[in-house]
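Quick question, first post here. What does this chain look like in 3D?
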Amino acid sequence: MILVKNFMTFNFESTKKDILGKKDKSNVGGIDPPILELCDLINSNEDYFTTSSCSGRVTLVEDLDKKAPGVFLFRSHERVEFEELKKGLMDAAEKVSEGLVFFKQEPCLVVVSCRDSDCQWRLFSEARNNGWKKSGILSVDKKMLVELMSSENISFPVIKDGEILVSDEMLKIVLEKANGNLAKGWGKIEGLKDKINK
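> Answer (accepted):
Ran it through. Tokens below.
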């Protein structure tokens, strides 16, 4: 374990500079506003840097074995209005004539590279103790990655072979829950910011 720590100490600074200096290659082209300050706070700490993040999102996604261009038929990282989702659902039904389309509300997450195992465990424990219940250690060598993830999520099929499976009433109920989950996630982002600041 001592050798791992020394290896990471030797490589950590240059790796952090390289990763944070690269252009954002995500589909959205930047960090979601609700989680931006948390990422900046983590990246300003000498022991950590972020490799990916999401503030939580609502999507309509085609059920494919592998991610492919166009797999997201609707995506929002903000509160979604019913009319907005209904239009996205109708557009998706026209586009996907075979197979399933899922409605998904996914939680906030941040993947962080840590200087050593002590820093990794400290951040993991802080997140787990403050509502990020699905957090986990991704690797204990190389980048010493920890994934901080909240627990609020919804996932179920809404379209099959071009046919919408849910009524407007059902969609409204699910959307209310999904928007509430997003708000809970944003609250946990703020809570973790406060803990890291102390």
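Residues 44 and 95 are 44 Å apart (CA to CA).
The chain has one domain: 2-197.
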